[in-house]
Design a protein that fits this description.
The structure holds 2 protein chains of 2 kinds.
Chain A (H helix, E strand, L loop, with lengths): L1 H11 L20 H14 L3 E5 L5 E4 L1 H7 L3 H4 L12 H12 L4 E8 L5 E12 L5 E10 L1 H21 L4 H14 L6 E7 L5 E6 L5 H7 L2 E2 L5 H9 L3 E3 L12 H6 L4 E8 L5 E9 L7 H40 L2 E7 L4 E5 L1 H7 L10 H5 L7 H14 L3 E8 L5 E12 L5 E10 L1 H23 L3 E5 L5 E4 L1 H7 L3 H4 L13 H14 L3 E8 L5 E12 L5 E10 L1 H38 L4 H23 L5 E2 H9 L8 E4 L3 E3 L1 H20 L9 E9 L5 E9 L12 H14 L2 E7 L2 E9 L8 E2 L1
Parallel strand pairs in A: 23-25
Antiparallel strand pairs in A: 1-2, 1-5, 3-4, 4-5, 6-7, 6-11, 7-8, 9-10, 10-11, 12-13, 12-16, 14-15, 15-16, 17-18, 17-21, 19-20, 20-21, 22-24, 24-29, 25-26, 26-28, 27-28
Chain B lengths: L8 E5 L3 H13 L3 E6 L2 H10 L4 E5 L1 E2 L2 E2 L1 H10 L3 E5 L15 E3 L4 H16 L1
Parallel strand pairs in B: 1-2, 1-3, 3-6, 6-7
Antiparallel strand pairs in B: 4-5
Helix pairs in contact in B: 2-3
Classes of the chains: A alpha+beta, B alpha/beta.
Chain lengths: 778, 124
């Protein structure tokens, strides 16, 4: 208490009367000895600080009330006697003290003195010489301050400091609480046993925190006690959120359920205080137990208060740390998962104060690699990107602007990684930029995808511009937004003119309405579009185009675009027309030739007086051949449909009431079609002459099917019923030979004519699509 | 079977001599009278315009020339006609698709059928 000492000395030292000699008061300057002596004694008597005056042989001359209070002896008991409070072994110190003062110096010491009750008291002691008028030292003034309070306060501070240091070093919560509890116990004068309980997350129970000196069995027993009324001191304090001081556990109703437990462990009193966070959340309780029923004194209550405060800080801090660590871990995990690393770069020093592990990984640095200066990171940036990167970083730093750039780094294995780096300038409270704080994300995959996309786009454009067709794209509504170069080359238009629905201006006025109507229908319904129409070239010529468009859908099936093409079919149409003319001409000539052959035969047979039925038979065969030709002509001599062949061949001989045809649609090669037509003709004419068609009721059923692996085998059956009784022919005529030989040869199959009594059954088997059969099933 | 009992006066326009001869024989065998057989367009045009005939059989392609103009005249005169063609119906000009057609080569019974159809249609 140096301040108090100075104050006292100032009282003894009149500031108006000159300076002290040798640092001591100068009594020569006192105005009137009697008066000053009186004033001096009054000040000492009323001082709250213990003061006494002794003479050089240690006889007490003056003993104030504060001294009496501190040491226990009354003025009357000590004045005129030797100083009473010198503990054993302290005499040399006391003599040294007196001698120092007697030399005119002030002596100060932290020491201990005896109380009347024999106990020791910590004091800070100052001894100063008192001089008489002549300046001789006759007495010594001794000022004693009770150092217990200060010592205790200092001890508490030191204890708190140790606890806080532990927190600062990142010690785990149990260790910190353990220390706190032990320090509290060490500072207790009343034999206290301290414990901390922690509230669980639900704030329903108290869990074991730290209680190193309480019996282990007791700690186990109260671990997890409920927070509620009448649950001992701690449960109740936590529940009521206020201190609960129970001075006698045995008699307190709040301890009813636990008093036996406490008694078994020799606990008589318990003061518990809730630990609350700065936000008022319950963190736990701090309890001080005493072996006997006890009411804590002032010191003890102060200790409880301070320990409680500290424990709350410790727990809250640790919880916050935990939360922060967790959130850091979460962030770190998130950053790791998103291939993002962070950095902090000090603008003033040009050094990285942070360069996290993710970022090191992204840059291809080893985790323990020190990344200090800008050059460290510039070293791995792709040289081609440096001319962009360096000025951008510099500009950002200079102007305090945020920074964002994509650049490449070269990894140790030579691979390229694309990073997206964005950073913000951080300013100090004065607004001066201090740091560049940023994050880099691996965008290699995206870049790769972008490059692939760009490459595909280039390929597409190249393809689209070089394809022989016009190509275009619309949005979902049919608004055309893109044409390939061919379109513009042909029409001599611009995208501006054409986009949307502008394309109608190159359509022929006779067709445009039909075209628009049809394409609108497709855009509305999503049906693929196909149309044929003329388009005007830049020279004004109309050419015909076969146009198609297909919707392009997203993964949900929604139409995103339409992709359309226009194929110039002018040439093809012309060629088709010419081919049609040629085929017609050929047919015309063939038919005319057949007609001429027919005429020659007719004239020949007529002049030879041959039976007219011979001419009839000949002509009918010729017509059957001609009819088969007609079908093939209609199909451009490519294929003939089997139903058409049957109908055209057989209908002249029998109506549907006499003839049934049944079988799948088959496209026959020209050769097969002719063979079948001729065969059917022979069977029909035979039936008309002798078989089922020779009377009024007979029936002919022609059925066919295809089976076996593709292209399959044709099974065809001609079956007559209801005709006259069949008599097998005595010799085979042209008809049966044509069927069994010719048709079989041409179809590469088998044929059998079965002369059943109830009607002829002809079975023909031919292999479809074989080299010789040339038939193809549809 | 009533129509064929009538003897029809028939004009044949056909450039192929043998086929024309066959037609003549067929028509005669069916009991008709062949008024004339013409192979040239100009001469045919004259007859088509003037001749007293009941029906004409027209080869569609007369030496590379279509005989539709003759059909037009006949139609105007109200004289029925039959196209005889190697093209078949498909080879006919769209305007004349519904006209009676004989697909070459044809048999007498085909001719008989078409003749009957022509006059039945008219009678109906």
């Amino acid at each position: 208490m140096p301040h108090i000492k100075t104050e006292l000395l100032d009282v003894a030292h009149d500031p108006d009367q000159g300076a002290a000699v040798n640092g001591g008061p100068d009594f020569r300057a006192w105005p009137e000895p009697a008066e000053s002596e009186a004033r001096f004694r009054t000040v000492i008597a009323s001082s709250p600080v213990a003061i006494l005056v002794i003479d050089p042989d240690a006889t007490v001359r003056l003993w104030n009330a504060a001294a009496e209070k501190l040491f226990g002896w009354t003025e009357a008991e000590v004045v005129g006697k030797a100083v009473p409070f010198i503990p054993d072994g302290s005499l040399p110190e006391c003599i040294f003290c007196r001698d120092t003062a007697m030399r005119g110096e002030i002596y100060s010491i932290e020491t201990q003195r005896l109380r009347r009750d024999g106990s020791l008291v910590d004091v800070s002691l100052s001894a100063a010489p008192l001089r008489d008028k002549r300046g001789e030292i006759k007495e010594i003034l001794i000022v004693l301050n009770d150092a217990t309070e200060r010592r205790w306060a200092e001890a508490l501070l030191a204890a708190e400091k140790r606890v806080l240091e532990l927190i600062a070093t990142g010690a785990p919560l149990p260790q910190v609480l353990d220390t706190l509890v032990r320090e509290a116990e060490a500072n207790s004068d009343e034999g206290m046993l301290c414990s901390v309980l922690l509230a669980d997350d639900s704030r329903e129970r108290l869990l074991r925190g730290a209680a190193p000196t309480l019996p282990e069995t007791y700690n186990q027993a109260i671990d997890g006690i409920r927070i509620g009324p009448d649950v001992g001191s701690c449960g109740t304090a936590a529940y009521e959120r206020r201190p609960v001081f129970v001075s006698d556990i045995a008699s307190d109703p709040r301890w009813t359920d636990f008093k036996d437990l406490a008694a078994r462990h020799g606990l008589g009193a318990c003061c518990s205080t809730p630990l609350l966070s700065s936000q008022g959340e319950l963190l736990g309780t701090l309890a001080m137990y005493y072996r006997e029923p006890h009411d804590p004194g002032v010191h003890e209550r102060e200790l409880i208060g301070r320990a409680t405060h500290l424990a709350a800080i410790v727990i809250e801090r640790k919880r916050a740390e935990g939360a922060l660590r967790q959130s850091r871990e979460n962030l770190s995990a998130a950053l790791a998962a998103s291939d993002t690393g962070t950095f902090r770069w000090n603008l003033a020093t040009g050094e990285f104060s942070e360069f996290d592990e993710n970022l090191k990984c992204l840059f291809g640095f080893a985790p323990d690699r020190a990344v200090l200066v800008k050059q460290d990171f510039l070293d791995v940036v792709h040289p081609d990107d440096l001319p962009r990167l360096i000025p951008a970083v510099d500009a950002s730093c200079r102007q305090g602007a945020d920074f964002a750039m994509e650049y490449r780094v070269i990894l140790p294995d030579g691979k390229i990684r694309w990073l997206y780096d964005r950073a913000k300038i951080v300013r100090n409270p004065a607004g001066v930029p201090t740091d560049l704080v940023g994050a880099c994300t691996d965008i290699t995959e995206r870049k790769r995808a972008e490059q692939a996309l760009a490459a595909r786009e280039r390929e597409f454009r190249t393809l689209a511009d070089n394809m022989s067709q016009f190509a275009w794209m619309t949005d979902a509504t049919g608004w055309i937004y893109w044409y390939n170069q061919r379109w513009f080359d042909y029409t001599g238009t611009t995208l501006q003119e054409m986009e949307g629905w502008g394309w109608q201006k190159v359509h022929h006025p006779d067709h445009v309405d039909r075209v628009v109507q049809k394409i609108r229908h497709s855009f509305d319904t999503g049906e693929p579009w196909e149309d044929t129409f003329p388009l005007r070239s830049k020279e004004g010529e109309y050419r015909w185009f076969l146009s198609r468009a297909l919707p392009i859908r997203d993964e949900h099936g929604r139409i995103q675009h339409w992709f359309g093409t226009n194929t110039d079919i002018t040439q093809r149409l012309k060629a088709e027309r010419q081919r049609t003319i040629l085929v017609n001409e050929l047919n015309h000539r063939v038919k005319n030739t057949l007609a001429t052959v027919q005429a020659i035969a007719a004239q020949t047979l007529r002049s030879a007086n041959v039976d007219p039925s011979v001419q009839e038979t000949f002509e009918s065969r010729l017509v059957a051949l001609s009819n088969a030709h007609s079908i093939l002509t209609e199909e451009s001599w490519e294929t003939a449909e089997i139903h058409a062949v049957m109908a055209r061949t057989l209908e002249p001989h029998a109506g549907p009431e006499r003839l049934t045809l049944h079988g799948p649609s088959i496209k026959l090669s020209p050769k097969a079609a002719l063979a079948i037509a001729m065969g059917m003709h022979e069977l029909a004419t035979n039936a008309v002459k002798y078989g089922a068609l020779s009377n009024g009721t007979g029936q002919v059923a022609v059925t066919w099917r295809v089976d076996g692996p593709k292209p399959g085998t044709l099974h065809l059956q001609w079956k007559e019923r209801g005709g006259p009784i069949v008599k097998p022919p005595s010799r085979k005529g042209f008809g049966s030979r044509l069927i069994e030989r010719n048709l079989v040869h041409d179809l590469n199959g088998k044929a059998k004519i079965d002369y059943q009594l109830e009607g002829i059954v002809c079975t023909i088997t031919g292999i479809l699509g074989t080299a010789s059969g040339e038939m193809e099933a549809v | 079977m009533t129509a064929e009992m009538f003897c029809r006066r028939v004009l044949i326009v056909e450039d192929e001599g043998m086929v024309a001869m066959l037609l003549e024989d067929m028509l005669t065998d069916l009991g008709h009278e062949v008024v004339a057989t013409i192979g040239q367009m100009d001469r045919a045009a004259e007859l088509v315009a003037e001749a007293a005939i009941d029906v004409a059989v027209l080869d569609v392609n007369l030496n590379g020339e279509h005989t539709y103009s003759l059909a037009t005249v006949l139609k105007a005169r109200g004289v029925p006609f039959i196209f005889a063609t190697g093209y078949g119906i498909a080879g006919l000009n769209e305007e004349w698709r519904s006209a009676p057609v004989l697909q070459k080569p044809f048999q007498a019974r085909d001719l008989k059928r078409v003749m009957r159809e022509v006059f039945e249609t008219r009678a109906g």
